[in-house]
Every structure is written in C-alpha cells, then in structure tokens.
Amino acid sequence: MKHAICYVSNANKDLSQQQIKSLLDFCQESNEQLSIKGILLYSEGNFFQILEGEKEVVLPVFHKIQKDSRHFGLIQIMGQDIAEGAFDGYKADILEDSKHSFQVPKKYIDVLHGMSPEAKRPMERMLENFIATR
Ligand SMILES: Cc1cc2nc3c(=O)[nH]c(=O)nc-3n(C[C@H](O)[C@H](O)[C@H](O)COP(=O)(O)O)c2cc1C
Q1: Whole-angstrom Cα distance, residue 102 to residue 113?
Q2: Which domains occur in the chain, in start order?
Q3: pTM check: above 0.90
Q4: Which residues pair with 79 in a beta bridge?
Q5: Residue 68 — φ and ψ, nearest 5°?
Q6: Residue of minimum CA distance from atom 7 in ligand 1
Q7: SS3 content of the chain, % helix, strand, coil (to 5)
C-alpha cells in the first residue's frame, strides 16, 4: 500500500545555509535509495515536504522527521493511503528569492506532472501559499 504525507515546518534558527544544503542533499539521496518520491523545499526559514512511497517505508521515515531537532512547529497537511504515486522522483531544493512573485516556479509544477487535475490544483495552491507566506 502506498502512502503520501505532506507537511510544513519551521527550520531551527541555528541552522546555517550550509547545514540546510547538506540536509537537503542527504534527503535527496536517502529518499532515492528508499524509493520515496516527492519534494522537499526550503524557503526563508520554512520547510515544505511531500513524501510518497510504500507505507511501511514512508511512516518510519516520517516518525524520524517528526523527532528531528533541526525543525519545529510541524503541521501535517495530508497523510493518506493512495492508489498510485503522483511523483516521478525526489527533488530537494532551496527556493530562490522571488519575494514579489507568487508564481510557482515551473520546475516544481513539472514535478507535479502526472497528478490528476483534481489532485494537482490543491497541491499547486499549497505551493503558492507556501511561497506567498514566506
Ligand atoms: C525538514 C527535514 C526533512 C527531512 N526529510 C527527510 C527525508 O525525506 N528522508 C530522510 O531519510 N530523512 C529526512 N530527514 C532526516 C531525518 O530526520 C533523519 O535525520 C534521517 O533520516 C537519518 O536518520 P537515522 O540517523 O536514524 O538514520 C529530514 C529532516 C528534516 C529536519
């Protein structure tokens, strides 16, 4: 059974840009090894993550993430069994500064490619809100 989790959180204030970069690189590699798909974005002190994969793989990773002291104030937006995955791979990245543009960068829309239109629109809106409120 496949499972999808989506959450937002606040990065620990002590994290340097380099530590954030290392964390993102680690997650990218670890998730590829675990066949977890989705995205992890960092933007001005916030994380936005989607994890999608086999339930018995995704849930233990999420439990580790919940206990990780590198972030706090985690709010889970979604956690549900899914018939099939919507993502082709894993993408962990830092959103470039674009304070006055609430447009979702094309590369993230591309990651959403493959989702049904009903599922895609709320996900895009979530991303727009994430970018708009940072
Ligand atoms: C914001 C955030 C997102 C994370 N995302 C992942 C992830 O997608 N996959 C992953 O393996 N670890 C992720 N981690 C790291 C885990 O919390 C944990 O440190 C890592 O899985 C190593 O665990 P281990 O030392 O028990 O093997 C994330 C940590 C943070 C703070």
Answers
A1: 19
A2: 2-132 (3.30.70.100)
A3: no
A4: 5
A5: -70, 125
A6: 27
A7: 40, 30, 30
pLDDT at 116: 72
126's tokens? 């979530």
Poorest-pLDDT segment among 24-28, 74-78, 96-100: 96-100
pLDDT tens-place string over residues 90-132:
988 887 665 544 456 565 566 566 667 776 777 777 677 666 6
Task: Dump pLDDT digits (tens) for 34-46.
Answer: 999 998 989 889 9
> Is 7 a pocket residue for ligand 1 (Cβ < 6 Å)?
no
For residue 46 and ligand 1, the question of a CB distance below 6 A is answered with no
Q: Evaluate: CB of 65 within 6 angstroms of ligand 1.
A: yes
Residue 49 CA to residue 38 CA, distance in Å, equals 7
User: What are the backbone angles phi and psi of residue 102, rounded to the nearest 5°?
Assistant: -100, 15
